[in-house]
Amino acid sequence: MYSPRIDEKLIPVIYRRAKSIKKPMTKVVNEILTAELCEDFYCRNCNNKISADQGSKEGYCDKCNSSVFLLTTSQ
Question: pTM for the whole thing?
């Protein structure tokens, strides 16, 4: 299977984010890509699936009990 390389300048950024939320770097990258590429929305804090109206810029995570800004491929 093809394994694309991550740009070297992004590694420190991913590392710091992963360390700050105490998750492995691979999980952080997967969460970012899933949120950006998939039609469904996921909470960036807990990766819980979020229901939101089409075109919404904000959703609500029932698991975290918090508002979450949504990212789509068009933003």
Answer: 0.52
